[in-house]
Amino acid sequence: MDEYNDMTQKWLRTHRNGRDEPPEEEVEEAPRRPGAGLFEWLQMLLGCVVAAVVLFNCAARLTRVDGDSMNNTLRDGEIMLIWSLGYTPGQGDIVVLNKTSAILPGWSEPRAIVKRVIATGGQTVDIDYDTGTVYVDGQPLDEPYIKEEMYLPPIAVMQQTHWEVPKGSVFVMGDNRNNSTDSRNELLGTIDSDYILGRAVLALWPLDRFGAV
């Protein structure tokens, strides 16, 4: 009986829908080589590492806030992600820059600093210290981000009140205006855009400060 059933099944397989068809071949999966799974995992890991290296060298990088000039927007010691790929400076952006030609008092070498872009190339900046107002192209800025009302700096190199920003440059200031070395200081001045490393986009550490900048 079993032999008869086997023959019947073979006949049905070769005569489906009234047509003679070759019997289906049974395909057996080739056995996986020992270690194949580990090799595939290592390939994926290597790909992730290469992608991360390209990302953090060409498009983004991590940087640490050094000092209190951006309080309370950013605080000393915060770690941020900055984006550089295709970035064009815009008014109001928080940027990281490194003017390699500027060594300010207390510095032993040029430093990367974090500031806010107040004006870009071709614009004018005026400061009225009596009212604590910054004007760009004659229009007062609404600046809810500053820590406190600014006053006239006590040092002569920061007492200028009018600037014309050259093309391809930016004028930057810290949000903590009374404790910030920025473009108001004639030793630093306006910043050529080539010195901008990128725009701060995300605060990463400490965790209680995590979020978009």
Helix and strand arrangement:
Blueprint: H1 2-14, H2 36-59, E1 60-64, E2 79-83, E3 94-97, E4 113-120, E5 124-128, E6 133-136, E7 139-140, E8 162-164, E9 169-173, E10 191-192, E11 196-205, E12 211-212
Antiparallel strand pairs: 1-2, 2-11, 3-4, 3-11, 4-9, 5-6, 5-8, 6-7, 9-10, 11-12
Summarize the structure.
By secondary structure, this protein is an alpha+beta fold.
Question: Key features?
Answer:
213 residues; alpha+beta; Umud Fragment, subunit A; 17% helix
Describe the overall structure:
The protein is of the alpha+beta class and 213 residues long. The chain has a single domain, classed as Umud Fragment, subunit A (Ribbon), CATH 2.10.109. 17% of the residues lie in helices and 26% in strands. It contains two helices and twelve strands. It has helices at 2-14, 36-59, and strands at 60-64, 79-83, 94-97, 113-120, 124-128, 133-136, 139-140, 162-164, 169-173, 191-192, 196-205, 211-212. The strands form two sheets. Strands 1, 2, 3, 4, 9, 10, 11 and 12 form an eight-stranded antiparallel β-sheet that branches. It is elongated and about 80 Å long. The model has no long low-confidence stretch (mean pLDDT 80).
Structural class: alpha+beta
Number of helices in the DSSP assignment? 2
How many runs of DSSP E, i.e. beta strands? 12
Shape: elongated
The named CATH superfamily: Umud Fragment, subunit A
Q: What value does the average pLDDT take?
A: 80
| CATH topology heading | Umud Fragment, subunit A
Q: Could you give the order of the helices and strands?
A: HHEEEEEEEEEEEE
Give the count of structural domains. 1
CATH-level-2 architecture: Ribbon
Terminal Cα span: 80 Å
Helix percentage range: 10-25%
